Amino acid sequence: MAQDELRTSLAQAAEPFVENLYHCLRCNYCVEMHWEERGIQHVCPTLLHHNPAPGYSGKGYLTTARAVLEGEELPINSLIERFFNCTTCGNCEEVCPVGLRPAHLVKQIRAAMVAQGFAPAPIAAIAENVVERHNPAGASIETRNHWAAGLDGIAAGAGALYLPGCAASYEAPAEARATVSVLHQAGVPLKLLPPEQARCCGAPLEEIGFPAEADAERRELAAAIARSGCRRVVASGAECLGSLAGTQLADGVEVLHAFDLIERAVAEGRIGFEPRVNAAAGPIGLLDSCHLSKKSHGIAGAANHPLRIRALLDRLGCQTVAVADQGSYAVCCGAAGGMPRMSPQSAARMADGKLRSFAEAGAVVVLGASPLCVAHLRRSQAAGFPAVMGVFEFIDSYFRLRRVV
Amino acid sequence: MKLSQIGTELAGQGGALVLEDKIDLLGYRRDTSIAPGGNPAAAVIARSVEDVAAAVATANRRKVPLYVRAAGSTYAGGANPCDGAIVLDTSALNRILKIDEDRGLALVEPGVTYGALLAELGRRGLTLGVVPLTGAAGTVGGAIASHGLGTGSPRYQSTGDEVAGLEVVLPSGELLRTGSAVLADAGFFARYAVGPDLTGMFLGASGSLGVITKIALWVHPRPEYQETFALGFPDYESGARFISALQLKELTHNLWYGAGYEDKAIEARVMGARPQFERAALPRFCLALDARGTSEEVARDRARIVAEAGRFGGAEFALFDEIFFAKLRRDNTFWYSYAGYFGRSMCALLMCSMANETVPRFFRAIQNNREAHPEFIWAGGLVLCRRGVHGAVIVFYEEREQWEQIRMASERCCRDLLANECVPYKSGRVWAPMMDQFGRYHTTLARLKKTLDPNGIMSPQILGL
Ligand SMILES: Cc1cc2nc3c(=O)[nH]c(=O)nc-3n(C[C@H](O)[C@H](O)[C@H](O)COP(=O)(O)OP(=O)(O)OC[C@H]3O[C@@H](n4cnc5c(N)ncnc54)[C@H](O)[C@@H]3O)c2cc1C
Ligand code: SF4
Ligand code: SF4
After folding, report:
1. Both B78 and B109 in a single domain?
2. Which of A169, B66, B380, B394 is the most exposed place for a label (fewest CB within 10 A)?
3. Per DSSP, which regions of A180-295 are E strands?
4. Which atom of ligand 2 is the closest one to the Cα of A102?
5. Residue B407 included in any domain
6. Helices B359-372 and B236-248 sit at what angle, rounded to 10 degrees?
7. Cβ of A28 and B71 within 8 Å?
8. Domain check: are B118 and B179 in the same one?
9. Whose CA is nearest to atom 2 of ligand 3?
10. Cα-based distances in Å from B339 to A95, A185, A221, A272, B336
11. What does each of the 465 residues of chain B score in pLDDT, given as a tens digit?
12. Which DSSP string corresponds to B398-436?
């Protein structure tokens, strides 16, 4: 009975995507392709590192959803397993020549599965953590700001509110600290939300099929932002940036990635950089985090921070390496979409694949502008792989900022 | 998931991945074509020649049909299985085994994409002769097994003409090498050796005579310079006569792609981009060309080609190049550039070959079908070859409402094309109902198939076999 209801509900979730379902040419571009000039070497991390079966991939999800819509009886457990093993990276959308949106479909189908009580246990656990403790890892609310202990640059009266996001707060605290430190040197004091008011931006919930819960978190976060009185919100989390860009905030509140502030200050000639240590960092690999570089992630993706960070690194005289898959078509590192919880080994292989390609390209350090990716890659770091750092961690370690008056 | 008995047999000893979950099998039902597909019982993702041989042996033992498939992007229907079949997925057999610069060839597994191979060759200043426009995802095995064409066709003709030899798992499970590689130690270096050309038997066979497991392809120096230009003609007849002259004088040598456009396409493109353009001045046939070589070679040939066009009432039509073709080609060889062509709509693609003098009848046949079936959007185009041309009929339809109707309309169009001396090129399933029209060719092919594949397990129904 429950299964019948699920089938109906899945068909309803697929219906708004009917244009997509019946316009997939089955050209296979989202499955496997190699296009050197565009920096495309592979497309789907799930096919590469979880399972190469055609039930996965953009084409696979569209084909399956079409069968669901047409009333075919499909094994429920496999359906759930297939749809919850997508990182929602959006690379299939990036490469699709027809402009179809399989990653968006996946989120809708997940939501229908969740609504019918079919969320896989690890996925339900993430949602529970967010609802109860306002972070996907389930870490305690009270420790949220522990990363900031003893830091200069935090000021209760600051006009800019810093939202490091859950990943930086709990899993990549060094990046949060470095961000505050660098912005402090650049003359931008930051304010933090009190831990009990801080909320998840909702993006992780959206990706795993809990849109209502995501919305509730987002609304509470918006209220906390309003209470802070700040007109500027500075985020570190790539997914937070996208989520906040789609959130109704008070009029005139500006949302930025922390890097935007540095970039602006450089462009306006307000800051300079002095090397801190004699040794250069060595060849650097730059991670193209999906949330920051793929158009399917909305404004944040279109802003393409990795490209702009690369420009700053060039300006600072840092040597960067080129890897085969890079830019907006880079294959996902496996950090998002619930993958590390749903299939930890596959997610680790995704990270491993990423780091391996940087290692092969000669990188000794890999920089990420998304703390979620940084934390995930660090968990997979093996001997011989490059070190992984947040972009601000790197700047703070290797450069001292000088304010130009 | 526990495998069925046949699944266990298919898995054999090796590293093949056997799929029996209905969700995974959905992905093997259909290729890009409009042809209906069946529900396979199992699929095998082969990772070695041994996996291929084991799958073929299992299919034979159990007398279950087996269909070969790589990216599944053929629009001829050759990768569509029948109900209960085994699908042998060769896409993971994708290694570049050797680039032999001394012999001027690349030895590859069939599942390698053109994109991956071109990238590797490009690093050595090399390229391939003929590359389908879907090259980023399309595989070499799939293209040669379904008579590929595309970039390079004016210079080298067909993907098959660029094959130096093959390794094939026959329906019996035995391994055959063709060309000079019949002498194992000699390896691949010549297509024609010893006796008749057995390589040719597997080209365009759509997997019905065996599974190709290795391919030796000629490689060529990568041209350093590229430019495009377009020629306009007052009618199809003069355009066709010009193409013959171009080919006979071997002015196609530095042309790497040539596309012929019918009047409707010219009008739509030009008037869309320049509404003020005088409609009466539009050419009725346009040939857009992509020339590559050294800049001197290209400049020299371009001048000669334009002069030759003048003898047939043609002239450069720079506007067409500017508003459409140049961008299409600059965007690279692959069919991304075709996105504007395909838009958000599904299409039937019927591919045929023809002698140049047939071109006007080809376009007339399309016009007749357009009038008979106004519920679809019809387009026709030519791909220039070293000799003759390929014709593509593209019929846009709405898959949700018109899938039945498009199949009927396509079949009717195929019959019209045959009546107008257009010969099927990519045949697979789409042209299968017409195969009995080829008399002794078809019966001989069927006899050959019976000899090689007595149980009829390899791709039944494909090519009408
Ligand atoms: C929009 C669009 C544009 C296209 N443009 C072109 C073009 O310009 N030129 C062109 O030639 N094609 C074109 N194609 C068709 C197709 O993309 C290419 O021919 C491609 O190279 C086929 O490779 P595949 O891996 O998709 O083959 P598949 O579709 O998987 O297989 C094609 C056929 O080959 C057989 N086959 C596959 N592998 C083997 C093997 N190892 N041994 C024996 N048989 C095998 C299959 O059974 C099937 O019959 C186009 C397709 C689309 C959708
Ligand atoms: S969103 Fe990413 S993981 Fe999911 S199907 Fe698309 S490419 Fe694969
Ligand atoms: S790239 Fe787009 S059209 Fe092609 S198979 Fe994937 S979803 Fe379908």
Report:
1. no
2. B394
3. 190-191, 232-235, 254-257, 271-275, 284-286
4. 6
5. yes
6. 140
7. yes
8. yes
9. A96
10. 12, 49, 41, 45, 5
11. 688 998 988 887 678 999 999 999 999 999 999 999 999 999 999 999 999 999 999 999 999 999 999 999 999 999 999 999 999 999 999 999 999 999 999 999 999 999 999 999 999 999 999 999 888 899 999 999 999 999 999 999 999 999 999 999 999 999 999 999 999 999 999 999 999 999 999 999 999 999 999 999 999 999 999 999 999 999 999 999 999 999 999 999 999 999 999 999 999 989 999 999 999 999 999 999 999 999 999 999 999 999 999 999 999 999 999 988 887 777 664 454 454 455 556 899 999 999 999 999 999 999 999 999 999 999 999 999 999 999 999 999 999 999 999 999 999 999 999 999 999 999 999 999 999 899 999 999 999 999 999 999 999 999 999
12. -HHHHHHHHHHHHHHHHHHHHHTTPEESS-TTTTGGGGG
How far apart, in whole angstroms, are the C-alpha atoms of residue A45 and residue B202? 34
- Residue B53: what are its φ and ψ, rounded to 5°? -60, -40
- Asked if residue B355 and residue B389 are part of one domain, the reply reads yes
Q: Taking CB atoms and an 8 Å cutoff, what residues of chain B touch A82?
A: 23
Number of domain units in chain B: 4
Rg of chain B over all Cα atoms, to the nearest angstrom: 22
Closest by alpha carbon to A80, among B44, B23, B42, B28? B23
Report which of A186, A179, A183 is spatially closest to residue A165, judged by C-alpha positions: A179
Hey, are the CB atoms on B113 and A60 less than 8 Å from each other? no
Residue in the structure block whose two tokens are 């708004």: A16
CA distances from B143 to A52, A82, B71, B135, B181 (A): 22, 30, 10, 9, 21
Minimal-distance CA residue of chain B relative to A73: B22
Pairing of strands A254-257, A232-235: parallel
Q: Could you count the other beta carbons within 10 Å of the beta carbon of residue B351?
A: 25
Q: How many angstroms separate the CA atoms of A338 and A317, rounded?
A: 37
Are B387 and B157 contacting, i.e. CB atoms less than 8 angstroms apart?
yes
Range of the domain at B11: 5-91
Query: Does one domain contain both B128 and B210?
Result: yes
The Cα of B388 is separated from the nearest Cα of chain A by a number of Å equal to 28
pTM beyond 0.90: yes
